[in-house]
Amino acid sequence: MNSGSIASRYAKGLFEFCQEKNELESIYPFIYHLRKTLLKESKPIELLEDITLSADEKIGLIERVSGSTLPKTLKQFIGLIIKRNRANILLNAFLIFRRIYLHSKNILDVELLVAEELPPSALEKIKAKVAKTLNSACEIDIKVKPELIAGYILIVNGKVFDSSVKGQLSSVKKKLLEKKFDNR
Predict the structure, then answer these.
(1) In this structure, are residues 34 and 62 in contact, taking their beta carbons and an 8 Å threshold?
(2) What is the per-residue pLDDT across 19-33, written as a single tens digit (0 to 9) for each?
(3) How many alpha carbons fall within 13 Å on the CB side of residue 130?
(4) Nearest-angstrom CA–CA distance, 180 and 170
(5) Residue 66 CA neighbour count, 13 Å, CB half
(6) Which one of 44, 139, 159, 177 has the lowest number of neighbouring Cβ atoms within 10 Å?
């Protein structure tokens, strides 16, 4: 069995358990934060796979990464995964849990790539505009990509809307190359 399907089973199990215990809303922010941190930092994942660390030390590491005390249910879930030597699936389980959670709440998964950091007021305006345009609640992950030069790329449930200078330059280049080959 591959690690993706194993992570999926754990994520679904955690989701259903949290739903039964009415803990989804209290668990989700921790999973969101941990997912975001583990995507940025590879060191905690490497440490989770270190066989010289005990399960309790690994759970403590996750708690330090989260920046606060984890809810009991989440701590038990992480402990279960670590004790079964499946720490390598933890990030995937968080990613899948998030996808299940967003789907259950009819929240769109939106990724916004920008050339430079935006002020919080601009982010709120963008979030409101996207939600209004798409007629749905959305959760926006923002990533700064200086190579975009200016503008933004909006990714909504896998669909890409490119309004960046880099994207426009690439489009012009492609058209010029097509014309060059058409004129031969």
Answers:
(1) yes
(2) 999 999 999 999 999
(3) 23
(4) 15
(5) 21
(6) 159
For the segment 40-94, what is each residue's pLDDT rounded down to a tens digit?
A: 877 777 777 778 888 888 888 888 888 888 899 999 999 999 889 898 899 999 9
Cα-Cα-Cα-Cα dihedral sign, residues 155, 161, 166, 171: positive
Looking up tokens 């968080």, which residue turns up? 94
In terms of Cα–Cα distance, which of 101, 72, 76 is closest to 11? 101
Q: Cα-Cα-Cα-Cα dihedral of 112, 117, 123, 126, to 10°?
A: -50
Domain boundaries, the chain: 3-103, 108-182
Residue 109 CB: number of other CB atoms within 10 A?
Answer: 16
pTM of the model: 0.79
Residue whose tokens read 């200016």: 150
Domain 3-103 listed as CATH 1.10.520.20 = yes
